[in-house]
Design goal:
Helix content is about 20%, strand content about 25%. By secondary structure, it is α+β, with helices and mostly antiparallel strands. Strands 2, 4, 7, 8, 9 and 10 form a 6-stranded mixed β-sheet that branches. A 4-stranded antiparallel β-sheet has the order 1-3-6-5, with no helix packed on it. Helix 1 (about 1-20) packs antiparallel against helix 2.
Length: about 180
C-alpha cells in the first residue's frame, strides 16, 4: 500500500510540474521576416529583417546568400526583438537567410533559416546589373506573394531546460519526503 501511495504522489508531482511549466518552447525562434519566407521580389531587397520571439544578444547573426552561394549581407544589426542585415549585390534566383540567435533572455541558441526568390535570370558571372532586372520595366510593388510556403525552419529544437530542472528537483524531493515519512523514528 505504501508503494502505491508513493507512485501516486510522485506521478502527481511530475504531472503538476509539467502542467504548471510556462510555455518556453518559442525561445528566440523566428516569428516573421522581411521579405517573407517564400516571397518573390522583383530585385534584391536593400535589407533583410527577422523578428524573433525573444531579443537576440550580441553575437547573434543573420547571413544572407544568393543562389550563386555568395554572401550578400553586411554586418548583422540588432534592434529590440529584430535583427537585420543590409544587402549588397546578388543574383536572381532563390536566396537563403540563415539566423543564429542567442537569446538575451536565457542564452539559448536557436538556428533557423528561410528562403525567398529574386525574380530575373540567374547570373553567377559576377555582373551585378543582371541580378535585379527581369526586363518588365515595372517599378511598382517589389513583393509578389507566391504559393503558400511551409513555416520558417528552426533547425534546433527549443528544450525547456528550466522547467525540466525544477520538475526533476520537485519529483526527487517528493520521493525523498515520502520515503522518510514511511520510516518510523
Amino acid at each position: 500500500m505504501k508503494r502505491l501511495r508513493w507512485v501516486i504522489v510522485v506521478t502527481g508531482a511530475a504531472g503538476a510540474v509539467v502542467l504548471a511549466a510556462p510555455p518556453v518552447a518559442a525561445h528566440g525562434d523566428i516569428t516573421t521576416s522581411s521579405p517573407q519566407a517564400g516571397a518573390a521580389v522583383r530585385r534584391p531587397p536593400p535589407t533583410v529583417t527577422v523578428d524573433l520571439a525573444e531579443p537576440p544578444a550580441d553575437g547573434s547573426t543573420l547571413v544572407v546568400t544568393d543562389p550563386c552561394g555568395d554572401e550578400v549581407s553586411g554586418e548583422s544589426r540588432i534592434e529590440g526583438d529584430s535583427m537585420s542585415a543590409r544587402i549588397s549585390g546578388g543574383s536572381a534566383g532563390r536566396w537563403r537567410a540563415q539566423v543564429r540567435s542567442i537569446s538575451s533572455v536565457d542564452g539559448h541558441l536557436v538556428r533557423g533559416s528561410f528562403s525567398f526568390r529574386v525574380r530575373g535570370q540567374r547570373d553567377c558571372s559576377g555582373d551585378d546589373e543582371a541580378a535585379g532586372n527581369d526586363g518588365d520595366g515595372d517599378d511598382g510593388d517589389d513583393v509578389e506573394l507566391g504559393e503558400p510556403q511551409p513555416p520558417l525552419q528552426n533547425d534546433e529544437t527549443s528544450f525547456p531546460m528550466v522547467p525540466f530542472a525544477v520538475g526533476t528537483a520537485v519529483v526527487v524531493a517528493a520521493a525523498l519526503a515520502l520515503r522518510r515519512s514511511g520510516r518510523k523514528p
